[in-house]
Specification:
Elements lengths: L3 E4 L2 E4 L4 E7 L7 E8 L6 E6 L5 E3 L7 E6 L4 E6 L8 E9 L7 E2 L3 E6 L1
Parallel strand pairs: 2-11
Antiparallel strand pairs: 1-3, 3-8, 4-5, 4-9, 5-6, 7-8, 9-10, 9-11
Length: about 120
Amino acid sequence: QVQLIESGGGLVQAGGSLRLSCVTSGRTFSYYTMAWFRQAPGKERELVATINSGGSTNYADSVKGRFTISRDNAKNSVYVQMNSLKPEDTANYFCAAKRIGSVTYSYWGQGTQVTVSS
């Protein structure tokens, strides 16, 4: 079983920055594709960014150029650096993991709240 624990959320003014961290348990972290999702009240969950075992990344159009996902396999951790934050980035942010070859994300963290004030 893989456990994921997010941290780094908080309240920030528009235009500011935050860095979210997600540390995972398990010995095979480097084999997982990692992702950050977010969900705002009354809205569907949105895929924000992904990074695979080889370090390739993908981003939602809404965050391209502002967010950067990265991973440190030695620390079993994945990060997302969020710059130029907007009020519409306000959401609960979740870290997720899936094994290579898997279609769905099987492992989820509990989430960390990001609130961007205008």
